[in-house]
Structure of Amino acid ABC transporter permease:
Amino acid sequence: MSIELFGLLVQASIYTVTISFVSIFIGFAIAILISGMLLTGRSLFVRPAQFFISFFRGVPLLVQLLLIYNLLPAVGLNVPSIVAAIIGLSLCTAAYQAENLRGGFASVPLGLVESAEMVGLTPRQIFRRIKVPIALRLTFPALVNEAILILKASSLVSVVGIVELTRMAQDLAGSTFLPLQIFASAGLIYLVINWVVALAGGLIESRLPGVAR
């Protein structure tokens, strides 16, 4: 396979990385809100949050993308395909990240919270200095794993017209009749991207509070 064809795959991978990371960060912001609703314990907030999580974890991502892509114009929102793709991926990953965060906050030892209350820390200080660091430490590996899953799942956004890495590989394989070389190269690029993400995640995790070095 020529360097020119490999270059086209690398260029397409920029779309893959961009769409994935924008979706992951937006999804994380939504996940904080959803997990906060779950932790209130009030049915007014818990039930909508549970429905959100059940829907986006229970419906295949491919169906979600097609649903959002067709729903937005139906309600008068004519947005580019890439926006629809990011919305779909963000909502999907938010459901999984929210469950990870909820589990992390629920795992904070009650004794630590009670000790902090006894020494006079306010609820805000307890949340910021104790709950957030411990919950983040506990959930970080799962969040990194979710980021890798979204990077791989981003191949599905081609159904809404985005020419990302997988779609480019399909187009090149069809036009050059070199499917083995093309898809092997695409797989190598995915492998390198996810290896870098896992490596970066490990480095960040080692620097989180409470981690022995």
Q: What stands out?
A: The mean pLDDT is 90. The CA atoms of residues 10 and 161 lie 18 Å apart. Residues 16-160 form a domain with the MetI-like fold fold (CATH 1.10.3720.10). The first helix runs from residue 3 to 40.
